[in-house]
Each structure stands twice: as structure tokens, then as C-alpha cells.
Amino acid sequence: MGGLVLLKALVTRLLFVLHSLVAVWRVTWVKKEHRYWLLALLNLLLVLETVLTLKFKRGRGYKWFSPAIFLYLINIMPSLWLLETHHGNQYCSVQSEKWAQNFSTRGDVNQTLTSHRDIRGMEDILKLALLFIDNLSLVCEPVWTLGLHQTLLLILILGRWLLPIGGTITRDQLSELLLIFVGTAADILEFTTETLKENDVRNNPTLVSGILVVWTWSMLQFPLDLAVQLKLVYPSSVKDRGFLRLFLSQYSADLWAIGLSFFIQDGPFLVVRLVLMIYFKVINHMLVFFAVKNSLVTALHFYRLVALIMATRASMHDHLESPQTQRHSSPDQASESGPSEWEDTSRGALPLQTSPVTSEESYPIP
């Protein structure tokens, strides 16, 4: 089992490094400058994290936070920023035609292989790989950038699944976290594709930078596991410590999910889309639809927050009434055991005087 954990830890981090290197290679191809290969040095941070994790944690993860995913985002986000802000990222038709003509003149893969039947082994594989890479490099920039966005989100989900479980997270919590990541990734991909594809947005570098800032901010929720690991069980004595302590102890995971929606995802996305529609006059049916969706999700989370507050107040109210109920039920319990001095007093009689019981057996008369 220990060897499998180490293998999963290494394979996942290797996948992160390879994907970030592909993004760096695409930046150098687009910019036509080899100095952008320096972005690959950011992977040294992930290599250092891998060594420390294998040495001190035996490949297992950490509680509430995943350093490997965080460093992977640090490695690949500068490359995606450079690709999105590149001036040629909005043109695709001319380059697509050039790529199709180039591919047709070279012939497809089957023709290449049949024309070299006499050559076997590694030489065929190398020629096929070089042909594939050469043709991939001619794919237009928007397609490449969109593909990197899509594979980034897929690798984040797959990588979190493959990373060894660490800390206090269970398999049930991990499955819940992965389902949350799938919905989050779909919403983030919709945000980038539907906003950055507009020509009015592409022609405004400041607006593109602002959208990328919001996108980067939304991606920071992937290294965190608080949405499922904050479901803690507190003793009933917490109810005596006030409303805020009880509220935070009972609904910490729900509050984290609501906070993510308000401040990291749906809230910022709604603000950006409203600014695009109201101030920049960028209006289309998809932008309106997703703005309505973000506003509806925000309203539902606010409704959920109000419901949790009301449930906490009801719980405190029941807790405060329970001691009074116990005090009112104590005379009834006393009446079942027998007459008391307070019952005699209420009827107008004097309280019963208790005196030591004597008997002839206990105190014989001389």
C-alpha cells in the first residue's frame, strides 16, 4: 500500500509538470522568443514540494490544503495569462485554412506510414510524433488556449482524485469534493469562454486583464478542502456559549460553501457580467443567461444563509426553554413520591415537622 501511495503521488505531480511545460512551449511558439522558457523554472517549486512530501508525509496530502495543486496553478497561470493577452489570440480563420492546406499537402498519417513500410521500429514512431507535433503547432491560437483551459480543469479534478488522501479527509468527503469541483470547473470554463470571446472585450486590454484577475481568483478554491472537512461535531455545551459560537460550530461547512459563492465565484462573476452589459454595452443572449444564473445562485445562497440563522435561533430557544421545563416538572415528580411540606402549606396547614423515628426495637424501655 505504501508503494502505491508513492506511485500515485509521483504520477500526479509528473502530470502537473508535463501540462505546465506544454503551456510554456506554446507561449514560446506564439511569442517567438526563447526567453519564455524561463517560466519552466517555476516547476522547481513543485519538485521541492514533491521531495518534502515524500520524505515527511510518505506521499500523503495535508489537512485542508493541497500544496501540489496550488503550485501547479502557480506554474501554469502565467502561461495562460500570456496566451490570453496576446494580440493574435482572437484570430483563427486564416490560420485554420493554412493549417488545413498544410496538412493536406503533407498527407495524412496513414499515407505517411504506408510510404515507409520498409522502415520499422523507432524511426516510424519518431517520424509520426514529429508530424503530429508539427501539425499541432499550426492550430490557431484560440483553439490552443481553449484547449489548455479545458485540460487545466480536467487535470485539476483528475489530479485531486489521484492524489493520496491525507489529513482527516475520508473517501466519502473526497467524492463529495470532486463533485463540487466538477460543477465549479464547468462554471469557470463558461465564464472565460463567454466573456473573452467577445471582440469588444478582446480589443480592450484593461478589460481582459480584469477578467483574468477574477478568473485567477476563482481558481484559488481548488487547493482548499474546507468545504467538506469543516463538518465537525461539537458537544451540546456549545449552546451555552452564545449564538455566534453555535452558528459557526453547526454550519461551518455550509458557511464555507456560501462564502465561496459570494466572494470567489458567483459574486465576482455576476459583477463582471453586469459591468460588461451595463457599462461596456456588451449584450448577448448567453451573457444575459449566465448573469441571471449567477444572480439566482447568489439569491439561493442568501436564502440558505437566512434559513441557517433561523434554525440556529430555534435551537437556542429550545435549549433555553428546556431548563425551565425541568424546573416546572420537579414539583410533579415530588408529588408522585408523596406529600410534601409545601403541599400542606398551600392547603393552609403548617409544614410537617420531621422528628426522629423511635421504636421499641430501637430504643427499648428499661
Question: Could you walk me through the main structural features you see in this protein, from its secondary elements to its overall organization?
Answer:
This protein is mainly α and 366 residues long. It has a domain at 101-139. 71% of the residues lie in helices and 0% in strands. It contains 16 helices and no strands. Helix 3 packs antiparallel against helix 10 (205-219) and helix 12 (243-250) crosses helix 15. The radius of gyration is 34 Å and the shape is flat. The model is unreliable at 103-109, 112-119 and 333-366 (pLDDT under 50).
Keywords:
366 residues; mainly alpha; 71% helix; flat; disordered C terminus
Secondary-structure topology with pairs:
Blueprint: H1 2-31, H2 43-56, H3 67-84, H4 93-106, H5 109-114, H6 122-136, H7 141-162, H8 171-196, H9 199-202, H10 205-219, H11 226-229, H12 243-250, H13 252-263, H14 266-278, H15 285-337, H16 341-346
Would you kindly provide a brief summary of this structure?
The protein is built from 16 helices and no strands. α8 runs antiparallel to α10.
